[in-house]
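Incident log, support desk, overnight shift.

02:14 A customer reports that sequence design results differ from what the structure should imply. Their input is reproduced verbatim below. On-call engineer (initials T.W.) acknowledged and began investigating.
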């Protein structure tokens, strides 16, 4: 048996989940009208500037120039992101700091001083401070272009810059970790997924610490999939695989590929306008998205993570068999 939260029902009292991993599920975080406003305001940008990933998801990162301009200029975007930052995510941390019975979770949340910053450590801000804005602009303009449109010189420039920038991020992150800080930056995207999109059972990448998903619409009655599943690992090992393979799902049990981890589904949450899920990205925070079928309007959502500059001090790295690096290049 698992908890099935359908799109027809409304969660009147937010649900705090301790098992299988810390999570929070709530409805009416923003109204349906606000969701529609968010969708229509960003529509032209999705058409022009998003890129396709995971076989059916149009992805627009918050760091894309055009999208970041829209966020800063539009009241509905500013207030939505501010609610996520200042109400839901902070309450989430405080709740589990006090209430969690899990030693690993409690220890991690209480051993750090959380600092929320607006942008990830980036050499470009360093260049601007030292009056080298023209170099910074050049880098940004190269990075906003398709790789295939860059000449060899530009490619080399971007490659070397990316390497030095990663090193800079790691050094700053190491310094934070030594001083007991968790420097979290919200990196998020507006996404629309269509038929064929799914995510296998996985946990999120190492640097993601607190992850949220805000659904902006329900799907049509004839469509299926798009639901978000939470899973519990049933194996006895103390180490967890980041992306355990599985063959098929029967009932709430996920049949493991030979020798892989066995899991069962504990929650299945259908998309609905204004429905929010927040979870702590532990090494066992297994989740999935069911394959989308027969949708014309698509599944519109905002997905984000409060993200560390590197995997130093990450909770996802504790009790795991393998690293899973965060794709910082998606948020250039
Ligand atoms: Fe995920």
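02:41 Re-run completed on a clean worker. Output:
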């Amino acid at each position: 048996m698992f908890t099935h939260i359908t799109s027809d029902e409304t969660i009147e009292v937010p649900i705090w989940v301790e098992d299988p991993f810390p999570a929070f599920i709530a409805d009416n975080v923003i109204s349906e009208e606000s969701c529609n406003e968010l969708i229509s305001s960003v529509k032209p940008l999705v058409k022009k500037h998003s890129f396709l990933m995971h076989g059916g998801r149009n992805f627009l990162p918050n760091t894309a120039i055009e999208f970041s301009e829209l966020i800063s200029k539009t009241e509905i975007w500013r207030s939505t992101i501010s609610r996520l930052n200042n109400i839901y995510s902070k309450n989430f941390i405080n709740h589990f700091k006090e209430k969690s019975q899990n030693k690993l979770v409690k220890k991690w949340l209480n051993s750090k001083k959380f600092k929320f910053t607006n942008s990830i450590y980036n050499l470009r801000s360093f260049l601007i401070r030292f009056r080298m804005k023209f170099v910074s602009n050049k880098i940004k303009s190269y990075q906003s272009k398709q790789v295939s449109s860059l000449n060899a010189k530009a490619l080399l420039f971007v490659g070397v810059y990316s390497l030095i920038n990663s090193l800079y991020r790691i050094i700053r992150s190491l310094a934070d970790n030594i001083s007991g800080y968790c420097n979290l930056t919200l990196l998020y995207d507006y996404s629309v997924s269509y038929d064929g999109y799914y995510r296998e059972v996985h946990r999120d990448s190492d640097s993601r610490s607190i992850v949220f998903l805000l659904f902006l619409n329900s799907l049509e009655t004839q469509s299926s999939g798009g639901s978000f599943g939470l899973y519990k690992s049933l194996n006895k090992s103390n180490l967890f695989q980041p992306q355990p393979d599985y063959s098929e799902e029967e009932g709430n049990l996920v049949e493991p590929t030979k020798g892989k981890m066995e899991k069962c589904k504990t929650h299945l949450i259908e998309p609905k306008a204004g429905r929010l899920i927040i979870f702590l990205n532990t090494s066992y925070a297994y989740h999935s998205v069911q394959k989308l079928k027969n949708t014309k309007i698509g599944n519109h959502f905002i997905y984000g993570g409060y993200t560390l500059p590197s995997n130093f001090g990450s909770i996802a790295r504790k009790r795991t068999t393998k690293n899973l690096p965060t794709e910082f290049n998606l948020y250039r």
